[in-house]
Amino acid sequence: MSQTEPSGDELDRDTITDNTLANWLNKHGPDWVLEIEPLDGETEYLGFVDGRFQNYNERGINFIALDYLEEIADRARKVEYIPVEESPFAGDEEEDAGEES
Asked: What is the pLDDT of residues 47-65, one digit of tens each?
């Protein structure tokens, strides 16, 4: 079943690091997704889905390396979390169908 709501205390944008993001996602990732509003660009969503770090942005869902977490942490203006059911990862099949080039 779903975990209780996690604490967001460690998600302060002034002190967040790539390790903080990775640890938070490893601990809460199956049930929760990070919603990150960067200083530049569109909102990104980070999740630990099917045992892999993934992000969602205007280009769709992508697998990401741990190095990318550092880039996101450096650009973060606002970091919040939402249930995975309310995130883009809940309906990734619909997104893939709309991503034809």
From this structure: 998 889 999 988 899 999 8
